[in-house]
Amino acid sequence: MDATAILNNVKSIGTEGLGAPLILVMMLAMVVIPLPALALDIFFTFNIALSLVVLLVVVYTLKPLEFSVFPSLLLVATLLRLALNVASTRVVLLEGHEGGDAAGKVIEAFGAFVIGGNYAVGLVVFAILVIINFVVVTKGAGRVSEVSARFTLDAMPGKQMAIDADLNAGIIGQEEAKARRQEITVEADFYGSMDGASKFVRGDAVAGILILLINIVGGLAIGMFQHDLNFSTALRYYALLTIGDGLVAQIPSLLLSTSAAIIVTRVASTQDMGGQILSQLLSTPKSLAVAAGVLGLMGVIPGMPNFAFLSLAGLAGAGAWWIYRGKRSKPAEEAPPQVVPEAPPEQRELTWEDVQPVDIIGLEVGYKLIPLVDKNQGGELMKRIKGVRKKLSKELGFLIQPVHIQDNLDLSPTGYRISLHGVVMGEAEIFPDRDLAINSGKVFGKLQGVETQDPAFG
Asked: Looking at the structure, do residues 83 and 221 belong to the same domain, yes or no?
């Protein structure tokens, strides 16, 4: 293969669908290649922005299946954060003896501003964040994911049977039934994936603790034995940078854990999360009125922050009164209009207009045979009847009358009836989902199936 052919093959790949592979290659590069401090700032900022966007998308999603890519996205975000931990650990251990912004402005800001430059406070804040993430959020989300996956799988046969029943009754068509089956499959796959994805978040929390301890111990050893720093200086430099690195990683981790918990606890609705909370939490004024009374009583207790309690009590009371007034101001439902009985129709003589015309050639089918007639469902019976009429008209020399086709619920689901001038000429049953096997006399043994008669040749 020459160079031109190779170049054409590369061009044929195009740029579509390369986003996810490039991100994975970029994460591998962060693990292997040392990154400058500026690149770390960019990637840490991107990681925080990605976690925030995912959280907002989950909040505004109406039902979980609208964000079915979330389990895969959760895995990618977790791997990105761990790759950043490896890259930042390398920079902290190599350049941490310089202090300050050796590992980038983001880590320095979290180590100096967020925790006030006190590594003891930073350790406590980091421990609290890990406990919230590991014990509270991820544990509950994991349990909800397990139960949802189990119940979804248990409900699949019943949902499939309901779809088949609606399809057989003619309530829905083939396309809608196919779409519903696809939705059931996607739902089962989604909750099954979420059951496994919750383990990523728990493992990430454990990895954050271990990385923090390893970085502090390794930083102290490198600072004291390689850069001749005393214990307090090495602890101040490396502990602040390591804690800042840990906080930068734990905050996006907590955001993604919260997103996972929200999406597995959401119920499909026509409102987003904010609309559901407002419509349901503020639907009854009694709850706000009682809360206002309790807050007011607590506000008059000596030693309590009276302004805060009384202010919230006033807001809750005003909200309860506003909701109550809004419900009372709604106009009462109008009484149904009086139905005046109509006068009986005037009797008139019978005419030919009152007699329903009889079709010359009629074909009645059961409801299971409707897809054979309906063009929207791929039925070709009308087209084939037209072809037969055309052929017979050429052979006989006169025009064969049109065939009027209609469904008849009195027939069996797979039955049909042919009539001529309203007189039944023949009726039988066909099975569209089966094949007709005819014994030619050379078949060994007995054919298995439903015995019937060839409707075309007897």
From this structure: yes
